[in-house]
Each structure stands twice: as C-alpha cells, then as structure tokens.
Amino acid sequence: MTATHQLQKSQVISVHYMRGFACLIVVLLHYGAYINNLFSFGKFGVDLFFIISGFIITLTTSKNKSIIHFLRKRFLRIYPIYFIVWLFFCLTLYYNESLSTILKSLFLLHKDYSQPAPGYGWNMLGPPWTLAYEVVFYFIFALAMKINHRRRIHVATATIILAVVGLQYLYNGNFHFNSSISAHLDVKNPGQAVIKLLSTTILFEFIAGMIIAYNYDKIKTLKPKTYIPLGVLLLIVSFFVFIKYHNTGFGMDGFFWFTLPLFLGLLLLEPLLIKFQFRALSFMGDISYTLYLIHFPILLLYEKHFPTFGMHHYSFLKFLILIGSSILISTLLHKYIEKPLMLKK
After folding, report:
1. Most buried in the list 49, 93, 211, 275, measured by CB within 10 Å?
2. In angstroms, rounded to a whole number, what is the distance separating the alpha carbons of residues 215 and 32?
3. What is the pTM of this model?
4. Which whole-number Å values give the CA distances from 108 to 171, 205, 259, 330, in the listed order?
C-alpha cells in the first residue's frame, strides 16, 4: 500500500484512522474555545482512545508471550516523548507550579484525587491525565499474559471487573456504573492513587476493545452483504446516540455508548476503507500521540505570551494559528524523536 504516510501492512486501517480522528477531536475541543466552543462535545475522543487501546493491545500480543518485551514496548511508546514534552513545558510554562504538582505529572499521576473521577483535576499538561489509565491497563494486561497468555483477555477482563466492583463495595459500600464515581478515600501516597484509578468504570472501555479484538477474526470473515449494512447501521445508531447525548460526560454513563457503535461500524467497513486512502487521517494517526501531548500546553503558552492576541473578532485567526503550529511541532517531534524511538522496539 502506497501513501504519503504509509500504513504498515499489519495495521488495521480503520483503527489507525480512528486514532487520528480521536486526537483531532480532542484538539478541536480545546481550541474550539476561540470559535464559540463549537466542538464542546470533543471529549468523546478520550472514550474512543480507550476502546482503541484495548483493541490494539490485544491484537499486538496475539503471538508475543514475553511480558518484558510487552512492557518495554509500552514504555518506549509512552514515556520518552512524554518526558521530553514534560521537561520542555516545565521550563517554559509550568515553572511556578508546586513541586508536588510537577512530580505528580512526571509520574503520570493526577493533580488532585479529591476531585471527581475519572479526571481527578487532570494532569499538569492537561489531556495526558488519560495516560495513568493506560499504564494501569498495561500492567493488568501484563499480569493476564503471565497467568495465561491464551486466556489473557478473559483474565484481564475479570481482573478489571473484580477490581472496580470490589473496590467500590469495599470503600463505598455500593457500586455505581457512573464513571465519575470511584473509591472514597483520601489519597496520601501513590498506592492509594492506584486504588482510585482501579475503582472507576471507565476501565470497562478497555474491556470493550479487548472483546472486539477477540472476535476480530470472525469479523474479517463477514461477506459484503453482511458487513456493509451492519456497519452502516451501527454508524447510524452512533449518530442518533450522539445527537441525543452530545452533552454527556466520560465513560460508561456517557460517551461510551456513542463511541462503541462508532468503533464497531468503522471496523466492519475496514474492507471499504482499504480501497480509499485518506491521507489526512493517516497523517493524523501518525502524529496523534505527540499532538495529544503538546496541544494544550501550547494553548497556554499563547495565552501567556500573547494575552490579547486572538480575542474577539480575531478568535478564528488564533484558532487556525494554534492548529497549524501544533500540527507542525507534532510532526517534527514524531519524525525526529518519536519515530526513531519506535524503531528501537
């Protein structure tokens, strides 16, 4: 397959496109503040990311049984570029933050665990608050691989459900499906922070991705007369759910019910997407992680150094400049730092 940003043959193209789309919609959510909050619904990108993660991690470990190799790949995928971004913005933007906030961000912890789940006051860098859940999922999945590689999906699913339900009953005396609920405890150390992370139902979104991946071989055998109408139907369902609940929140009582049929619908239409080359979405998929990391601090940098720039009738200009500069910087980071690191996996 030839394209400006060539996809690997092993990649599921629809998922790569969705990764780019999910990142873009999160960026538009934040930058949309300068065009009358036009993309206020963009938080659903987070839910889509978690489903994608559960799906990809399951597929990419189908043959590899090495836990060390798996965790090493995950570390190289997430942390080196994160550390570079963290260090740069600590020096240029967040130097007045408390040492506690800076160190929490360094170790992917949230700012304030007294705040509601799943964001807990967010990460110092903003959107990377989601990385804490990714890391928790990786360790659960690694444990599942160790216990029984062939049944790793079943073990990981059971572990997540037992952890979430069990911890809520242990600390709260009941269970809530709402992803803004977690174990009621005062966090005084990283271990208690992990309990907070393990007790929110937003982790169930990883389960959805795993289950879909488990059935992916069956999905690929579907004939056009089946996957085309079914895929289109799921996209229609997703659209109507979005229209009705576009002002909802994260997780199982929120955007999960929009992103699940969206993910399934586009995955079913994979054979059609292979025939077309959406270079823009492929490109966005390539730079999605670096763009996700830097776009919010870049917004704050603009506000800090140009406090009156882009206000009022210049807002759309600021929106365009933010988008353009973030994509440019993300592209450079991906090409010269992230991509070389990925080749070392």
Report:
1. 49
2. 37
3. 0.94
4. 24, 20, 25, 20
Q: How many CB atoms lie within 10 A of CB 129?
A: 21
**123 phi and psi angles, rounded to 5 deg:** -95, 155
Of the candidates 300, 333, 302, the one whose C-alpha atom is nearest the C-alpha of residue 84 is 333
Rg (CA), the chain: 20
Q: What is the pLDDT of residue 3?
A: 36
- Report how many domains make up the chain: 1
Query: Residue 83 carries which side chain, given as an amino acid letter?
Result: F
Which residue ranges in the chain fall short of pLDDT 70?
A: 1-10, 309-314, 344-345
Preceding peptide of 128 cis, ω within 30° = no
Asked whether the beta carbons of 53 and 206 are under 8 A apart, the reply is yes
Q: Could you tell me the residue range of the domain that residue 76 belongs to?
A: 3-343
pLDDT computed for residue 312 by the predictor: 55
Whether 7 contacts 262, CB under 8 Å: no
Q: What is the pLDDT of residue 75?
A: 95
